[in-house]
Amino acid sequence: MSELSHVDETGGVRMVDVGGKDVSRRRAVARAEVRMAAATARILRELPKGDALATAQLAGIMAAKRTSELIPLCHPLPLSHVEVTLTVGDESVEIVASAETTAQTGVEMEALTAASVAALTVYDMAKAVDKEMRIVEVALVEKTKESVS
Questions:
Q1: Can you tell me the distance from the alpha carbon of 130 to that of 128, in angstroms, rounded to the nearest whole number?
Q2: Residue 13 within any structural domain of the chain
Q3: Is 9 among the domain residues?
Q4: What residues are labeled active site?
Q5: For residue 14, is it within any domain?
Q6: Based on the structure, what is the number of domains in the chain?
Q7: pLDDT in tens, the chain (149 residues)
Q8: What CA–CA distance (Å, rounded) separates 98 from 144?
Q9: What is the 3-state secondary structure (H, E, C) of 123-144?
Q10: How far apart are CA 122 and CA 76, in angstroms?
């Protein structure tokens, strides 16, 4: 196992020093899924203008912007774009969140935070009708880095 980036040689926690790294265009995509009863998914699909889904989308975007306040050792990043999409299936809601920046460190934590908080918001909005919902498969699905020179 490689050395943990946020742990120093004495075992103490630390913020990674990215000061010497080149600025790059970075993008990350994360995915989460909320599994639920078919009846719950139908309710979410039939809401006017998808109000519950719009709320979850906004929650995910807002969470990405606040990641460094939630995860203690994350760097605050100037996000250039955040997108959160929610797709209601037969028995689930799939959430895909992407985050982009031009900075010295990646945006995978922002994408993962956006997907996670959007999933939690779907759960919160539907928990009254479905006690068996599960948030599953929160994962980073893509991470890119391009030179800006």
A1: 6
A2: no
A3: no
A4: 124
A5: no
A6: 1
A7: 358 778 878 888 887 877 778 889 999 999 999 999 999 999 998 876 568 899 999 999 999 999 999 999 899 999 999 999 999 999 999 999 999 999 998 899 999 999 999 999 999 999 999 999 999 999 999 999 999 87
A8: 11
A9: HHHHCCCCCCCEEEEEEEEEEE
A10: 26
Q: What is the CATH number of the domain that holds 40?
A: 3.30.70.640
In a domain, 101, yes or no: yes
Please provide the DSSP assignment of the chain as one string.
-PPPTTB-TTS-B-----TTSPPEEEEEEEEEEEE--HHHHHHHHHSGGGHHHHHHHHHHHHHHHTHHHHSTTPPP--EEEEEEEEEE-SSEEEEEEEEEEEESS--HHHHHHHHHHHHHHHHHHHTTT-TT-EEEEEEEEEEEEEE--
Joined together, the tokens standing for residue 131 give 């006690």
On whether the CB atoms of residues 86 and 118 are closer than 8 A, the answer is yes
Domain that holds residue 115: 24-147
Q: Please, what is the end-to-end C-alpha distance for the chain in angstroms? A: 33
